[in-house]
Specification:
The chain is of the alpha/beta class. 40% of the residues lie in helices and 18% in strands.
Protein backbone atom coordinates (compact mmCIF):
# COMPACT_ATOMS: atom_id res chain seq x y z
CA UNK A 1 0.00 0.00 0.00
CA UNK A 2 1.80 3.19 -1.16
CA UNK A 3 2.04 5.93 1.44
CA UNK A 4 3.87 9.23 1.68
CA UNK A 5 5.04 10.68 4.99
CA UNK A 6 4.13 14.37 5.24
CA UNK A 7 3.97 16.61 8.28
CA UNK A 8 4.01 13.66 10.67
CA UNK A 9 1.25 11.68 8.94
CA UNK A 10 1.36 8.70 6.58
CA UNK A 11 -0.95 9.50 3.67
CA UNK A 12 -2.25 6.78 1.39
CA UNK A 13 -2.18 7.56 -2.32
CA UNK A 14 -2.42 5.90 -5.71
CA UNK A 15 -0.75 7.04 -8.94
CA UNK A 16 -1.35 5.55 -12.38
CA UNK A 17 -0.56 6.61 -15.92
CA UNK A 18 1.50 9.36 -17.52
CA UNK A 19 0.91 12.82 -18.86
CA UNK A 20 -0.76 15.80 -17.21
CA UNK A 21 -1.04 15.04 -13.45
CA UNK A 22 -4.67 15.08 -12.30
CA UNK A 23 -4.97 15.06 -8.50
CA UNK A 24 -8.34 14.09 -6.96
CA UNK A 25 -9.31 15.34 -3.48
CA UNK A 26 -12.23 13.66 -1.73
CA UNK A 27 -14.98 15.00 0.54
CA UNK A 28 -15.30 15.10 4.31
CA UNK A 29 -15.42 11.64 5.95
CA UNK A 30 -14.97 10.08 2.49
CA UNK A 31 -11.89 8.71 0.73
CA UNK A 32 -10.18 8.31 -2.63
CA UNK A 33 -12.02 5.02 -3.01
CA UNK A 34 -14.91 6.91 -4.62
CA UNK A 35 -12.75 7.88 -7.60
CA UNK A 36 -12.35 4.29 -8.83
CA UNK A 37 -14.35 5.09 -11.97
CA UNK A 38 -11.84 7.82 -12.81
CA UNK A 39 -8.91 5.40 -12.94
CA UNK A 40 -9.69 4.81 -16.63
CA UNK A 41 -8.44 8.35 -17.26
CA UNK A 42 -4.93 7.01 -16.62
CA UNK A 43 -4.91 6.04 -20.31
CA UNK A 44 -4.54 9.78 -21.01
CA UNK A 45 -3.21 11.36 -17.81
CA UNK A 46 -1.35 10.66 -14.60
CA UNK A 47 -4.24 10.01 -12.22
CA UNK A 48 -3.39 10.59 -8.55
CA UNK A 49 -5.79 9.98 -5.69
CA UNK A 50 -5.03 10.84 -2.09
CA UNK A 51 -6.63 10.18 1.30
CA UNK A 52 -6.46 13.09 3.74
CA UNK A 53 -5.07 12.34 7.18
CA UNK A 54 -7.68 10.62 9.34
CA UNK A 55 -9.61 9.41 6.29
CA UNK A 56 -9.66 6.23 4.23
CA UNK A 57 -6.41 4.33 4.45
CA UNK A 58 -4.29 7.24 5.69
CA UNK A 59 -2.98 7.43 9.24
CA UNK A 60 -5.58 8.34 11.88
CA UNK A 61 -3.53 11.05 13.58
CA UNK A 62 -4.89 12.56 16.79
CA UNK A 63 -4.24 16.12 15.63
CA UNK A 64 -4.18 18.22 12.48
CA UNK A 65 -7.80 17.90 11.39
CA UNK A 66 -8.37 21.37 9.98
CA UNK A 67 -8.55 22.60 6.40
CA UNK A 68 -5.35 24.66 6.80
CA UNK A 69 -3.44 21.54 7.87
CA UNK A 70 -4.94 19.44 5.08
CA UNK A 71 -3.78 22.13 2.63
CA UNK A 72 -0.29 22.05 4.12
CA UNK A 73 -0.32 18.27 3.79
CA UNK A 74 -1.29 18.65 0.13
CA UNK A 75 1.56 21.08 -0.51
CA UNK A 76 4.03 18.72 1.17
CA UNK A 77 2.69 15.79 -0.85
CA UNK A 78 2.97 17.66 -4.15
CA UNK A 79 6.48 18.75 -3.22
CA UNK A 80 7.61 15.28 -2.19
CA UNK A 81 6.14 13.78 -5.36
CA UNK A 82 7.74 16.56 -7.43
CA UNK A 83 4.37 17.46 -8.95
CA UNK A 84 3.74 20.75 -10.71
CA UNK A 85 1.35 21.99 -13.39
CA UNK A 86 -1.37 19.79 -11.91
CA UNK A 87 -5.08 19.79 -12.58
CA UNK A 88 -6.62 19.70 -9.11
CA UNK A 89 -10.06 18.08 -8.82
CA UNK A 90 -11.78 18.85 -5.52
CA UNK A 91 -15.04 17.17 -4.57
CA UNK A 92 -17.06 18.74 -1.74
CA UNK A 93 -14.58 19.35 1.11
CA UNK A 94 -11.82 18.68 -1.42
CA UNK A 95 -12.71 22.03 -3.02
CA UNK A 96 -12.53 23.74 0.36
CA UNK A 97 -9.04 22.29 0.82
CA UNK A 98 -8.15 23.59 -2.65
CA UNK A 99 -9.30 27.13 -1.81
CA UNK A 100 -7.41 26.97 1.49
CA UNK A 101 -4.37 25.84 -0.49
CA UNK A 102 -4.75 28.85 -2.78
CA UNK A 103 -5.04 31.12 0.27
CA UNK A 104 -1.74 29.79 1.65
CA UNK A 105 0.29 28.92 -1.43
CA UNK A 106 -1.31 30.51 -4.50
CA UNK A 107 -1.85 28.78 -7.85
CA UNK A 108 1.69 28.41 -9.20
CA UNK A 109 1.46 24.59 -9.13
CA UNK A 110 -1.90 24.53 -10.97
CA UNK A 111 -2.67 24.39 -14.66
CA UNK A 112 -6.37 23.91 -13.97
CA UNK A 113 -8.93 23.43 -11.22
CA UNK A 114 -12.15 21.42 -11.11
CA UNK A 115 -14.63 22.09 -8.30
CA UNK A 116 -17.24 19.37 -7.88
CA UNK A 117 -20.32 20.09 -5.79
CA UNK A 118 -19.16 22.68 -3.30
CA UNK A 119 -19.99 26.24 -2.31
CA UNK A 120 -17.67 28.70 -0.54
CA UNK A 121 -19.43 28.48 2.84
CA UNK A 122 -21.93 25.98 4.24
CA UNK A 123 -23.05 27.86 7.34
CA UNK A 124 -26.06 30.16 7.26
CA UNK A 125 -25.29 33.77 8.10
CA UNK A 126 -26.58 37.25 7.43
CA UNK A 127 -25.81 38.52 3.96
CA UNK A 128 -25.20 35.02 2.53
CA UNK A 129 -28.15 33.27 0.90
CA UNK A 130 -26.61 29.88 0.18
CA UNK A 131 -26.08 28.48 3.68
CA UNK A 132 -27.43 24.98 4.23
CA UNK A 133 -27.54 24.79 8.02
CA UNK A 134 -27.30 26.96 11.13
CA UNK A 135 -25.35 26.49 14.35
CA UNK A 136 -28.20 24.53 15.98
CA UNK A 137 -28.14 22.00 13.15
CA UNK A 138 -24.34 21.87 13.25
CA UNK A 139 -24.47 21.28 16.98
CA UNK A 140 -26.84 18.40 16.35
CA UNK A 141 -24.40 16.84 13.89
CA UNK A 142 -21.56 17.21 16.40
CA UNK A 143 -23.63 15.46 19.06
CA UNK A 144 -24.61 12.69 16.65
CA UNK A 145 -20.95 12.14 15.75
CA UNK A 146 -20.28 11.29 19.37
CA UNK A 147 -23.47 9.44 20.30
CA UNK A 148 -24.51 7.58 17.13
CA UNK A 149 -21.94 7.77 14.30
CA UNK A 150 -23.84 5.17 12.26
CA UNK A 151 -26.94 7.36 12.22
CA UNK A 152 -24.78 10.31 11.19
CA UNK A 153 -23.38 8.26 8.31
CA UNK A 154 -26.80 7.28 7.01
CA UNK A 155 -28.06 10.86 7.31
CA UNK A 156 -25.30 11.95 4.95
CA UNK A 157 -25.84 9.08 2.52
CA UNK A 158 -29.56 9.84 2.19
CA UNK A 159 -28.71 13.33 0.91
CA UNK A 160 -25.81 12.42 -1.39
CA UNK A 161 -27.23 10.12 -4.05
CA UNK A 162 -30.16 10.18 -6.45
CA UNK A 163 -30.64 6.51 -7.32
CA UNK A 164 -27.70 4.23 -6.67
CA UNK A 165 -27.69 0.53 -5.67
CA UNK A 166 -27.42 -0.59 -2.06
CA UNK A 167 -23.82 -1.66 -2.69
CA UNK A 168 -22.79 1.96 -3.37
CA UNK A 169 -24.58 3.15 -0.24
CA UNK A 170 -22.81 0.44 1.75
CA UNK A 171 -19.44 1.58 0.41
CA UNK A 172 -20.21 5.13 1.48
CA UNK A 173 -21.23 3.86 4.92
CA UNK A 174 -18.06 1.81 5.27
CA UNK A 175 -15.81 4.77 4.44
CA UNK A 176 -17.66 7.28 6.64
CA UNK A 177 -17.58 4.98 9.65
CA UNK A 178 -13.88 4.25 9.08
CA UNK A 179 -13.16 7.77 10.38
CA UNK A 180 -12.86 7.76 14.21
CA UNK A 181 -15.52 9.92 15.96
CA UNK A 182 -13.01 12.43 17.42
CA UNK A 183 -11.69 13.10 13.91
CA UNK A 184 -15.22 13.26 12.52
CA UNK A 185 -16.18 15.96 15.01
CA UNK A 186 -13.03 17.99 14.47
CA UNK A 187 -12.99 18.13 10.68
CA UNK A 188 -16.77 18.29 10.22
CA UNK A 189 -16.96 21.39 12.40
CA UNK A 190 -13.88 23.01 10.88
CA UNK A 191 -14.96 22.58 7.27
CA UNK A 192 -18.49 23.73 8.06
CA UNK A 193 -17.52 27.15 9.42
CA UNK A 194 -14.76 28.13 6.97
CA UNK A 195 -15.61 30.93 4.57
CA UNK A 196 -13.79 31.08 1.21
CA UNK A 197 -15.80 33.78 -0.55
CA UNK A 198 -12.78 36.10 -0.60
CA UNK A 199 -10.50 33.34 -1.95
CA UNK A 200 -12.65 32.12 -4.84
CA UNK A 201 -11.74 35.07 -7.12
CA UNK A 202 -8.03 34.37 -6.50
CA UNK A 203 -8.25 31.15 -8.52
CA UNK A 204 -6.74 32.48 -11.74
CA UNK A 205 -6.40 29.25 -13.73
CA UNK A 206 -8.96 27.64 -16.07
CA UNK A 207 -11.72 26.24 -13.86
CA UNK A 208 -14.51 23.75 -14.38
CA UNK A 209 -17.42 23.78 -11.92
CA UNK A 210 -19.53 20.61 -11.77
CA UNK A 211 -23.09 20.79 -10.45
CA UNK A 212 -25.32 17.81 -9.69
CA UNK A 213 -28.74 19.34 -10.34
CA UNK A 214 -30.68 16.81 -8.27
CA UNK A 215 -28.87 18.11 -5.18
CA UNK A 216 -30.27 17.94 -1.66
CA UNK A 217 -27.09 18.30 0.43
CA UNK A 218 -26.09 21.75 -0.91
CA UNK A 219 -27.80 24.61 -2.72
CA UNK A 220 -27.50 24.69 -6.50
CA UNK A 221 -27.13 28.45 -6.21
CA UNK A 222 -24.14 28.01 -3.92
CA UNK A 223 -22.36 25.90 -6.54
CA UNK A 224 -23.30 28.39 -9.26
CA UNK A 225 -21.77 31.11 -7.05
CA UNK A 226 -18.37 29.49 -7.67
CA UNK A 227 -18.65 29.67 -11.46
CA UNK A 228 -20.00 33.24 -11.26
CA UNK A 229 -17.14 34.45 -9.06
CA UNK A 230 -14.15 32.56 -10.47
CA UNK A 231 -12.17 34.52 -13.04
CA UNK A 232 -12.05 31.89 -15.80
CA UNK A 233 -14.74 29.32 -15.05
CA UNK A 234 -17.26 27.25 -16.94
CA UNK A 235 -20.22 25.43 -15.40
CA UNK A 236 -21.23 21.87 -16.28
CA UNK A 237 -24.60 20.57 -15.10
CA UNK A 238 -25.25 16.88 -14.39
CA UNK A 239 -29.00 16.48 -14.50
CA UNK A 240 -29.07 12.88 -13.23
CA UNK A 241 -26.73 13.39 -10.28
CA UNK A 242 -26.89 14.59 -6.72
CA UNK A 243 -23.72 15.21 -4.73
CA UNK A 244 -21.52 12.68 -6.59
CA UNK A 245 -21.65 13.14 -10.40
CA UNK A 246 -18.31 11.31 -10.85
CA UNK A 247 -19.96 8.30 -9.20
CA UNK A 248 -23.52 8.70 -10.50
CA UNK A 249 -22.66 9.63 -14.11
CA UNK A 250 -19.05 8.40 -14.39
CA UNK A 251 -18.80 8.07 -18.17
CA UNK A 252 -20.12 11.57 -18.81
CA UNK A 253 -18.07 13.02 -15.94
CA UNK A 254 -14.88 11.47 -17.32
CA UNK A 255 -15.65 12.75 -20.81
CA UNK A 256 -16.34 16.26 -19.53
CA UNK A 257 -13.18 16.27 -17.43
CA UNK A 258 -11.04 14.93 -20.28
CA UNK A 259 -12.44 17.50 -22.72
CA UNK A 260 -11.80 20.33 -20.24
CA UNK A 261 -8.18 19.27 -19.71
CA UNK A 262 -7.54 18.82 -23.43
CA UNK A 263 -9.08 22.17 -24.35
CA UNK A 264 -7.96 24.35 -21.46
CA UNK A 265 -5.07 22.73 -19.57
CA UNK A 266 -2.65 21.18 -22.06
Amino acid sequence: MPTESVNGAELYYKSNGDGVPVVFLHGVLMSSRFFNEQQSLSDEYQVITLDFRGHGRSEKTETGHTLPQYARDLEAFLDTQDLSDVVLVGWSMGSLVAWEYVRQFGTDRFRGFVSVEQQPLDLKQEGYEHGVFGFDELHGLMELAQTNPHELAWSFIEEMLVDEPDSVEQTLFDEITRVPPPITSAILFDQSVRDYREVVPDVDVPTLVCLGEDETMLENGGVEYISDNTVDAELERFTNSGHCPFLEEPERFNQVLSSFIAARCE
